[in-house]
Write a structure and sequence with these properties.
The structure is a single chain. By secondary structure, the chain is mainly β. It has one domain: Ureidoglycolate hydrolase (Jelly Rolls), CATH 2.60.120. It is built from one helix and 13 strands; from the N terminus they run E-H-E-E-E-E-E-E-E-E-E-E-E-E. The strands form three sheets. The protein has a five-stranded antiparallel sheet, with no helix packed on it. Strands 4, 7, 8, 10 and 11 form a five-stranded mixed sheet that branches. Strands 1-13-5 form a three-stranded mixed sheet, with no helix packed on it.
Length: 161
């Protein structure tokens, strides 16, 4: 293993802000929470699909990250227990900065929008298989960028993960 990352069980918006935003329901009945400013890209078309993701267990080893330079990517849990969101900033050359890799444990009630160009791991659901609604924009030939990384172990900081 090249490194280990402790999974954060807190998911404060300010801790995630440089990577995107969390999607959370409004606090009061009748309110709406808008996320439209995160979405869309010139010349691209929206694509909406549902993923069925097998469950995984901790500790978890990451060996690959991805990013989408032209479009944000939105994941809304439809039927999950808990899931991991793992993100990394970019180095000046555009590659993933693994020293800044962070992993967040999210409940089934919170979605995520990855900002354009943010390095992230694929969805990792815990406890049982899960499903996400996924919304993103497509049309750029170079919008799926994958990078193999040195094996990175995601570990729990407590018994609840």
């Amino acid at each position: 293993m090249s490194q280990s990352v402790v999974i954060s069980e807190s998911y404060a918006a300010e801790d995630f802000a440089r990577f995107g935003t969390f999607i959370d329901r409004p606090t009061q009945a009748g309110q709406r929470q808008f996320y439209s400013d995160w979405l869309g890209a010139d010349g691209l078309v929206p694509v909406f699909h549902v993923n069925n993701v097998p469950s995984t267990t901790l500790p978890l080893t990451l060996t690959r990250l991805e990013r989408h330079p032209h479009a944000a990517q939105c994941f809304v849990p439809l039927d999950v227990s808990r899931y991991l969101v793992s993100v990394a900033p970019s180095l000046p050359d555009g590659s993933a900065d693994l020293s800044g890799l962070k992993s967040f444990l999210l409940p089934s009630t919170v979605g995520v929008i990855y900002a354009r160009g943010v390095w992230h791991a694929g969805a990792s659901v815990l406890d049982r298989a899960g499903a996400f609604a996924v919304l993103m924009w497509r049309g750029a030939n170079d919008d799926d960028v994958f990078a193999d990384i040195a094996p990175t172990l995601l570990i729990s900081q407590g018994p609840s993960a």
